């Protein structure tokens, strides 16, 4: 077959649309991943709650108005009485005060457990929607439309905990509860920093799962960084399914592998300049954890290099910041002690196995010094 004929056939092929069940604690998510999956939005939700009645439509202030209106019309067409609730996205969405405001809105519209909540937004709104849907009337059906890749693989499986106030952050937790997740790549930027955060999360998930998953990401790295939609859709569905399965494991040790890297990320976010990419900080968290593991003789040097190389292959950079080793250590401890009385970090034991482990003070200090020196701006 000539290259010309093959190119013509490829152009005629419809974009891949992946349908995937994702296990989560207490249930499962019907994930739809690919370009154009929202074309079936109304059809799929027609059977979500039996007879359609009321729908609380949570929308991000950053969402495209035309998209919001299109989805509202789809919901109205299949019989829902739709009430819009606009929410500021980002960390502002994940506060107890914002949750209380949304819950008040649900009360005013007389929403019941037999009705529907739909959320369109980035990570903040998707996380908030899980909190609200879990609490309302003992649980109400939730459908989400994430606007970036990280909101799919991160927030749909591990919703951000709510802040009680500015001083006490990420303390009110919830479990994921969405019944549907429409990851339409047509409404996302496949090459922005949120996409890179998702790619780092794919690597972290593979490090917690198995070598075969790690190998698939390695093979697809070029297409992932280039934003090839069909490949992104497939890998997004696979990694989200894996992350959900890990979080739903009956083994506590496996569940504890899911936040691999995030302790470091949340600890250092307040300390680094605001212009530093979150994806680079997340990748640095994996690199730092792997070096700790090698020093503890838990991880082989070759596996550490493999993780470094796949992050480099995905074009994930490094953060630049000027912080003291003592600040880094104190931040890590504060982050751990925020929700537990133990100072333990998720570290890789091999490709496919991440576990919580204690870290010797002297070893931690040595690696903190090395990290701070390597990432200084001078």
From TrEMBL:
- Top-rank taxon: Bacteria
Report the residue ranges that make up the 3-dehydroquinate synthase N-terminal domain in this protein: 85-160
* Record Gene3D superfamilies: 3.40.50.1970
Q: Which InterPro entries does the record associate with it?
A: DHQS/DOIS_N
Q: What is this protein called?
A: 3-dehydroquinate synthase
